[in-house]
Amino acid sequence: MKIKNKIFVPSVLILFFYLLNSSLLAESAIFTNKLGMRFVLIPAGNFIMGSPESEEGRQWNETQHKVVISKSFYMGDTEVTQGQWEKLVGFNPSSFSDLGKNYPVDSISWNQCVEFIRVLNDWEKTDKYRLPTEAEWEYACRAGSDGPYFFPGDPNKFQKTGLKAKLSKNDTAVINTYVVYKANSLSKTQPPDRAKPNPFGLRNMPGNVAEFCSDWYQPDAYSLYPDGVVKDPKGPDSGDEHVVRGGSFQSTADVLRSAARDYTRTEAWLKTDPQMPKSIWWYSDCFNVGFRVVCEFDEKTGNVSP
């Protein structure tokens, strides 16, 4: 899809002026809820979603298109932890449960995440919590950037192969400070403070565990959007699987790109379920996917908590 030249203010400038001029935002940019989940405010703005054809590691389902995120929203500064999950629902399903309560929860299904959020809303007597849309996730991950990552570098430098790998080592000094991935994870998840935050204050968006989004997954979803700017896209109306974004502790550098897309494999992830028919509520066999929670922001009141 050809991107037409129109006035399109970079999100980083929107963030700057928003922070500079909004006393309401300054007072409520961060809050911690009753469960101990820390949220940072992501300002409304616009960006180019997807990746250019020249980007190393790009896949065909990453067609670029202009997106407007019309409303600010809160997002958890880390993935939901094992301790937060257990405190709310009373058990810890994680495959890495022996590592500690501060590690991200894993081995959970998309449906279980949605149920967790429903219980959280009931507990706090609100309806503001939900999963992020795919567009919100990429917007928050990019944090005003337009390259493969929100930090400097490209997959070619972080992930050399063949003759290049023999001639020189991978240049991982930068990526190692921002992401938990295959090269530095020791084959397991890591605590949130292992990685530096992106400019929005979010840690490990590209790695540690991949993250569920609310959208149904459709490979060609981007190419079906109309030309011009798409406002607050929420994905297809129906589908069989849901969007998964970000890489994990098992991922190589190309999978960590801000535009990289993935999806759930519901049937494959329920193989150990002994029930017939298999239940969507059974523990997931996938131990490298977790989730991050969004809390809707009240523009009028600047809600510090729901």
What does it look like?
It is a single chain. This protein is an alpha+beta fold and about 300 residues long. About 20% of the residues lie in helices and about 15% in strands. It has a five-stranded antiparallel sheet. A hairpin with a 5-residue loop joins β1 and β2. The radius of gyration is 19 Å and the shape is globular. The N and C termini lie far apart (about 40 Å).
Which keywords apply here?
15% strand, five-stranded antiparallel beta sheet, 306 residues, disordered N terminus, alpha+beta
Question: How do the strands and helices of this protein lay out in sequence?
Answer:
Blueprint: H1 11-21, H2 23-28, E1 30-32, E2 38-42, E3 45-49, E4 65-69, E5 73-76, H3 82-89, H4 110-123, E6 129-130, H5 134-142, H6 155-158, H7 162-167, H8 175-178, E7 210-216, E8 229-231, E9 242-245, E10 261-263, E11 289-290, E12 294-296
Parallel strand pairs: 4-8, 7-11
Antiparallel strand pairs: 1-2, 2-5, 3-4, 5-12, 6-12, 7-9, 9-10
